[in-house]
Known about the structure:
Elements: E1 2-5, H1 9-17, E2 21-25, E3 36-39, E4 42-45, E5 50-51, E6 63-67, E7 69-73, H2 78-82, E8 96-100, H3 103-112, E9 115-118, E10 122-126, E11 129-132, E12 137-139, E13 142-145, E14 157-170, E15 178-182, E16 191-195, E17 202-211, H4 218-227, E18 236-251, E19 265-266, H5 268-272, H6 278-286
Bound molecules: flavin-adenine dinucleotide.
Amino acid sequence: MNLILGGGIAGLLLASSKKDSMVIESQNKVGGIFSYEDIGEFSIPLYPPLTARKCDLFSQFSYKEVELNVISRKENYLLEKLGVSNLPEWLVFNEKMYYIDNLRLVLDSLSKTTRVRLSTTFMYKGGKRVILSNGEVIKADEIYVTVPSYLLNIKKGRSIGFLEAVFFVNKSDRAENTVIVDGDKGVTFSHVILASWMNNSYDIVYVLIPFSMKIPSWDRVYGDLKRKNILKKEDIISFRYRVIKDAILERDQDEKLKEEKEDIHFCGRLGKWRNFTICETINDILHC
Ligand SMILES: Cc1cc2nc3c(=O)[nH]c(=O)nc-3n(C[C@H](O)[C@H](O)[C@H](O)COP(=O)(O)OP(=O)(O)OC[C@H]3O[C@@H](n4cnc5c(N)ncnc54)[C@H](O)[C@@H]3O)c2cc1C
């Protein structure tokens, strides 16, 4: 049996491409960064899947072209604020982007064809054996790791986390289809996406707040959103929060990868510890 750790798009694609596979996922839903949440009658992605170009090796996506108004403040300080040496490609916003508008359908159809087991933690015991949180031991023929490699005691670098908020707000005179990039260290958030294209009745506002050690307080975040005229607490109809612990990945320079050890396969952004875009993730999976 092929055991696949992680049920993001990488894990699901791997599972669908291999016979007799099982996915182990720690959350109660699949999709990873792009998992979906139902708010009222709407299903929205917890992060909007945007790409600069269409994924050439994957034909199942359908795209909506989105024209973005990108507003940058103190952009020269952004890398310092994030604490990284380079920006991931997925955090660079062009005036014209493609929004993958059928990702939920793709994730649903991939997850229907595979066994997914929920296990909040797992322990790797060597010899291709994994212990799940209920104590069950699974012995696999092959193990594919799409979760952080440090969970198998292989450290490939460090990471910057994002606290993420998704707000469902009434449409108003706020700017449409806008991305605000803020490099000012005095402001908690670094990116705001006003995704008006996603819903005809409501605006969906995504806010990314970087952190390395301490997570900023929500009072400060709300204070900044109000001060910068983005939204007020009263505008919010519904919201979701999540902590993405390993969002931007920084690889160690002199790392000696032990990837071949015990024939474990490391795939996707977390397995390889690279800031892949969704298209790069798909390409990586095809060769993993
Ligand atoms: C905040 C953010 C926004 C992004 N936006 C874009 C974008 O707009 N466009 C783009 O092209 N790319 C974007 N990317 C990159 C893109 O998300 C990826 O390349 C691709 O979607 C990653 O898929 P994945 O399955 O490898 O990883 P993930 O989606 O991170 O999935 C990993 C999975 O492993 C699970 N997991 C973690 N720990 C455990 C554990 N201990 N046990 C079991 N399961 C575990 C997680 O719950 C998750 O389901 C973004 C990345 C981030 C971090």
